[in-house]
Specification:
binds magnesium ion; cell membrane; binds guanosine-5'-diphosphate; membrane; undecaprenyl-phosphate 4-deoxy-4-formamido-L-arabinose transferase activity; 7 strands; about 40% helix
């Protein structure tokens, strides 16, 4: 793995946030791929958020930190879920632009540059660059679940998004932190970012199979929680008025 351009002293422009729970064997290969995608292009840091893993994930991260000064490790004492992990990572991020990806290897870091560049080019208007998976590498059953969930979600929320559950995303840190928080939020970012009045840029990304380990979610997690979250996001959108354009008035006339 080559050394990064930035070191802990310089403030990175970009933070890569990776939520993980029990992904020990996937840590090192994924970090090598992130470095290969970003080295020489951006001053960046990588923040792994270990959500109460019970395997060797924390030890693997600690060992790598010795060699990679741009790698940071944030730990939840107990597992609080993927959304909470992403949020903790974004809160710790020093970059104004944050990009996220899953820690199991299903998201190829080679797509990070396109997502980051889309946010840089988009300026204030664009709130989110969202990966859209093509050629899903999940089981047939999970692909069907995902297709139904995406169709129902898009039908109800009208967020114009084909695939809102892809872990590959980039956004401005301040935009993400202004969103209403709930467990499950990471699957609804397009709708929530549109709700704030921002545009979304889509980037097609090739999906991959998990490098190793097992999925953290079962069928019922996705179904019941998905229905509840959909109702919640629908309500949030219904209860939104215009986004205020705020400025402080300092002149006396
Ligand atoms: N922090 C945290 N990460 C999680 C949790 N569940 C899943 N993840 C991570 O989120 C990513 C996607 O989860 P995964 O289990 O692969 O879900 P799937 O691809 O939808 O089957 C992986 O990097 C997981 O390690 C969790 O409860 N907490
Ligand atoms: Mg996965």
């Amino acid at each position: 793995m080559s050394e990064p351009v930035t070191h802990s002293g310089a403030t990175p422009g970009v933070s890569i946030v990776v939520p993980v729970r029990n992904e020990a064997d996937n840590v090192e290969p994924l970090i090598a791929e992130i470095a290969a995608a970003l080295d020489g292009r951006w001053a960046y840091e990588i923040i792994y958020v270990d959500d109460g893993s019970s395997d060797a994930t924390p030890q693997r991260l600690a060992a790598l930190r010795g060699r990679l000064p741009h790698l940071r490790q944030v730990r939840h004492e107990q597992s609080c879920g993927q959304s909470a992990a992403v949020r903790s990572g974004v809160r710790h991020a020093r970059g104004a632009i944050v990009a996220t990806l899953d820690g199991d290897g299903q998201n190829n870091p080679a797509f990070l540059p396109d997502l980051i560049a889309a946010i840089e080019k988009g300026g204030a208007r664009v709130g989110l660059a969202a990966g859209q998976r093509v050629g899903r590498k999940d089981t047939g059953f999970k692909k069907i679940q995902s297709r139904i969930a995406n169709t129902v979600r898009n039908g109800i929320l009208r967020d114009g998004t084909r695939d809102s559950g892809c872990g590959l995303k980039a956004f401005r840190r301040e935009v993400f932190l202004a969103l209403p928080y709930f467990d499950g939020l990471h699957r609804f970012l397009p709708a929530l970012v549109r709700r704030e009045g921002f545009d979304i840029v889509y980037v097609d990304v090739a999906d991959r199979p998990r490098l190793s380990g097992v999925s953290n979610y079962g069928f019922f997690d996705r179904l019941w929680i998905g229905i509840m979250d959909l109702a919640g996001v629908w309500w949030l959108i219904r209860r939104k008025k215009a986004t205020p354009v705020v400025s402080e008035v300092t002149s006396r006339d």
